[in-house]
Amino acid sequence: MCRVLGVSPSGYYAWRKRPLSARARADVELSAEIQAIHRESRGTYGAPRIHAELAARGIHVGRKRVARLMRSAGLQGVSRRKPFHTTVRDETARPAPDLVDRAFQAAGPDRLWVADITSVSTWAGFLSLAVVLDAWSRRVVGWAMETHLRTELVLAALDMAVAQRRPTDVIHHSDQGCQYTSLAFGRRCREAGVRPSMGSVGDAYDNALCESFFATLECELLDRHRFRTPAEARLAVFDFIEGWYNPRRRHSALDYLSPIIFERGHGSDDRTVASESTIAPGGAILISPSVAVQ
Prior knowledge:
Blueprint: H1 2-5, H2 9-17, H3 22-40, H4 47-56, H5 63-73, E1 112-122, E2 125-134, E3 139-146, H6 151-165, E4 171-174, H7 183-192, E5 195-198, H8 208-222, H9 230-245, H10 259-265, E6 273-279, E7 285-292
Parallel strand pairs: 1-4, 4-5
Antiparallel strand pairs: 1-2, 2-3, 6-7
């Protein structure tokens, strides 16, 4: 082997006994930290978010170095699947005006909420998940899961958001689903001081912010797990939203801060209401709002 490689036997044995260089030892330690962060992210983080997490822990290295070590360790983040359309464009008159016009930026908390519905499959059938997000912090401020698609589903998500945030003149933007165009939903918005806004039919870009959250949910949870029962799916979604996405998941649009950390860092006039979430028997989610926190 030495003759083929053109090296001396003494040089080979010297190489075998030579200790790792400082750079190689640092790579070994950094790789262990990267693998730990990847596990903590539930196997979802790619190089950008792992780089941000390392910086938050006081470890300042280049992003390309992180990507190189991830490739060596066989680690990668999850990627979103291709979008698909479930509705057909219909240019009839909308029940509420479009107050957003695809401008999903908000100057502060509870100025603009976006809402939508998606489905969660289980071995026993489908569950419907309705969410309400604050466009400012990307935080899920209200959500509900049911085995049906009646108006009560979106009303429960709206009630949770109103109870937690207590907004003043907030815009609630959604598509033109029959749940959001119902008389009961319009009446509840008037009672709560919420201004309904709706995009056009069959155009996901008119509600792109909420579609982006659902893509994250599908990519990081729903596409990676199979749920036997609705109760199991409820617990998993609860854990994802309240245990991971809101408090811990780093968001690229928030300078790689989680929604709750972002609100704490920019919340001098935040009207967020602290709440405690519990799970009742059967998988129902109970939210108990407390006194408003200034």
